[in-house]
Write a structure and sequence with these properties.
The protein is an alpha+beta fold. The protein contains 4 helices and 5 strands; from the N terminus they run αββββααβα. The longest helix has 14 residues, at 3-16.
């Protein structure tokens, strides 16, 4: 899946996500490899948005390969297992990264 395809899916997810119980969340996602890129997902004022930019005042940054990120979104990769096996790296607030993983997981 290309970066643009992932971004489209993330924006679709953001439009359907339920941010209930999340006051503020700003996560930068760094996708590695040839189909990589950078985007952020933000929960602010009860709305979820996703844009293909760096987010400097973020809660955390997540670094992951595009294929593993797609698995994470589809619920086929457990975020805790991905973190403990090194498939997912988190810089910053690990709790916010877990909130993010619940937000993006397909229901």
């Amino acid at each position: 899946m290309t970066f643009d395809e992932i971004m489209t899916k993330v924006k679709e997810m953001a439009s359907k996500a339920n941010p209930e119980g999340i006051d503020f969340l700003a996560v930068q996602v760094n996708l590695t490899g040839k189909d990589g890129g950078v985007f952020y997902v933000e929960v602010k004022d009860g709305k979820v948005s996703a844009e293909p930019y760096d987010y400097h005042d973020r809660s955390c940054a997540v670094t992951i390969e595009p294929a593993n990120f797609v698995k994470l979104m589809n619920g086929k990769l457990d975020p805790v297992a991905a973190y403990t096996t090194g498939k997912l790296k988190v810089e910053g607030d690990l709790g916010k990264a877990l909130e993010f993983s619940k937000l993006i997981k397909k229901k």
